[in-house]
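Usage example:
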Amino acid sequence: MANRHAFWMLRFTSWNRFHYNARMKTVNIILMGYGRVGQAFLRMAGEKRALLEDRHDLHLQFSTILELRGALHFPRPLSPDSILKDLSLVQSFRMSQYWRPGFDLVSALDKSAPGVLVDCTPSKAGNAMPESGYLHQAFERKWHVVTANKGPLVADLRGLVSKAKQNTVALKISGATAAALPTVDVGFYSLAGTRVYRIEGILNGTTNYILTRMSGGADYRDALKEAQEKGITEPDPSLDLEGWDTAFKLLLITNTVCDTDFTLDDVKVEGIMNMPGHLIREGREPHQALKLLGIFSREQEQPYLQVKPSILDSAHPLFGVNDTNKGITFFTDTMSTVTVTGGKSDPRGAAAALLKDIINIYR
Amino acid sequence: MANRHAFWMLRFTSWNRFHYNARMKTVNIILMGYGRVGQAFLRMAGEKRALLEDRHDLHLQFSTILELRGALHFPRPLSPDSILKDLSLVQSFRMSQYWRPGFDLVSALDKSAPGVLVDCTPSKAGNAMPESGYLHQAFERKWHVVTANKGPLVADLRGLVSKAKQNTVALKISGATAAALPTVDVGFYSLAGTRVYRIEGILNGTTNYILTRMSGGADYRDALKEAQEKGITEPDPSLDLEGWDTAFKLLLITNTVCDTDFTLDDVKVEGIMNMPGHLIREGREPHQALKLLGIFSREQEQPYLQVKPSILDSAHPLFGVNDTNKGITFFTDTMSTVTVTGGKSDPRGAAAALLKDIINIYR
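Running the assembly step on the lines above writes:
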């Protein structure tokens, strides 16, 4: 009797599972780049499997993980856990049974039913702006794109958005616009219907850490050294310190939220490397703080985009955003100002932002 | 020649317009309640017409405006501007040519193709919990609902959500959950994929105004009097002062964002009317602030919901939220804390939140 009962319980469970799966969407993922963010993303997709299935009816499976000079390609797409287990058995990525030297993005796009390309390749924006062509190829093959890579977006946002639209797929850029701090989707969803006439953002954790130390009395060199010793800075911190990282994010956020068409040439950029002494002294006064702000304004006839070290007083909504924290304030016509602060500033936070974008594509 | 040129320009313009309208969705609106929020919503729908059409391909037209004991019913739905123009010609709402005494919600739902019911009726939650039945009727007739009315939601959120789902229509509640301060849609979109294990919110403008004054040295009576003289308080401020308004919003936000099923009985509520003296004194210390917090926590085995006056130190992300401003902090597993502050606290802000919800329904 007990056995028979168990038998029916099992059947009942299976039936439930079957019934439930009828609503489930299975999504193929190509993961591009297996550095710190890419690895964090694969791991998080595994950790969050139950939540994705139970709450969002999404089943993520990986068809390819692209790296320089080759890829892991899974002819039958695998779950994150299977891949991680497989990788744990070998000494290096390229010793996996699935390693295919020379396997490239186009092969990956063509060899599996379209899903989401998750771009975790490092940003090489600045003077050497990377091509956006590979994302165009993804859109043409009906893949959605979710990206943490600012480079192609800074070079070609308008072209990418329009190519995605033509192919009725999505381009989601949270990972490239302050990641776990929600910026573009607050602008897109929460401020829908308003006119955003000004944006102010503390968009770079490294410079904010250094400025916070300097407000506390440290000089620039010591603060930078401390940040380097704590592993907060990039190996080459110049894009951060010169204000370019802030400029990239400001540009992408503004063009997305305000439906504008600015280019990097339109942004006046000043970093924190050679700040005038009076600014540093003012930032040490009580009820004042020195912050590297990215600012967009269309209050006057001539709209402008600017990155510059600025003094905030204690009533400013970004006044308390210290250390590696980030924040953004939107100034709107009908909702007044809306400020968002926080969000984890590390590869795990970036991975969480990529995952969020995937969920929102399939709602 | 000039005339012929003008003729072709006109044709060209019309063609463009025709071509454009092919993507346009025309949405019928029933506006329920024509108090301060309802009026602000009608006016804003008029002001925002161009933005709604150009950016969101949405054309809003009103089929009915419901009031107590009757309605303005427009057999052919009208634009906000036409209605406002028509109303400007009469001395009172009920003298309009469109006034139909006794015309009720069911008639309104049945006499027009389904669109969005915008509920701006005043919240009468608390002891006299209003029925949610009328919203069920809207869902059964395939109308979406966008609401600023907390009452039915507090009484029956789970039932309403499930009825909406059954009928594949949407229930959007930004207007009832701090309005222009984005709370539920930050939880829904921006924190998708995270586990929110704690929420702290300053969710009521009136009490925050009074506590801000008290932190500055005023006593409770004087601060309350000042708020009343400035028109910040409701005619009957007790729901605010006793903490119930905060409790309603906390309950709705928690159940929506965390997929929980708490009822009002689960919320332990303490207001600001009889605070112990030591709390008031601590709130006046430098680097400390006294705030009425709504708190949800599932950090311990026993989850809880609580409203209580609390001391924040200056590192808390809600520390600088003063006067009638509001704010909310979400504590998540993968994105760390995310805080949103600001958002206009008036009928216009509420109207903007209702409009935002409509836009997001039709994306």
